[in-house]
């Protein structure tokens, strides 16, 4: 098991609409500066337009920094996942995280099983795992049924129980259900906060150990260390009113969460 960071740990720092956005190289440098050895390029669509020279530069930079790369996208259409398998080969990536739905495709469970079976053989031959993330648009029960029906161990689940709270699934139930199929973990704490005026709640991120995630129980159920499952840190950090304040807090959360995971896994 290794601790990793995601582009979601730098979400407010790389947004191209904000001043001085971080490049992919900048994020790799920041990851290495924290002594972290895995970086997941997740939902970072720009990577799809990189040419071979740019991809080689990313791979060489990661290698020089001692960082293992993972990829993340959305959707299970075979052509799209085959495109990411090509990217994986060029970046020396051995795990691609995806989600059942994309902006343009919402397959039924039966369709998803058929599509995943089509690409699973190619992923297996390439030595690349596929991890389907838990989230509120698809119940964890359905996701487990899909993965079990595909029947190829290369297709597993990226556990992120915080996402499922919005569908009224309890994190402990989600963790217990998906644990046997997990091959990647997204790690973020979360909490409910009262809206201004006390009308309603917001489900937002929190520094690890300060929210509702029972991290120790999750690790005990999934056993990432024994199974070689990477734990990828990300955040749900609300906008803090201005870019500088938000980015500074994001960096502080990342450093805190890296330390927290190390202290719990030592």
Automatic annotation (TrEMBL):
Keywords: Carbohydrate metabolism, Isomerase
Gene Ontology molecular function: isomerase activity
Pfam families in alphabetical order: AP_endonuc_2
Domain named Xylose isomerase-like TIM barrel: residues: 28-246
InterPro entries reported for this sequence: IolE/XylAMocC-like (IPR050312), Xyl_isomerase-like_sf (IPR036237), Xyl_isomerase-like_TIM-brl (IPR013022)
Gene3D superfamilies: Divalent-metal-dependent TIM barrel enzymes
Name recorded for this polypeptide: Sugar phosphate isomerase/epimerase
Taxonomic source organism: Subtercola vilae
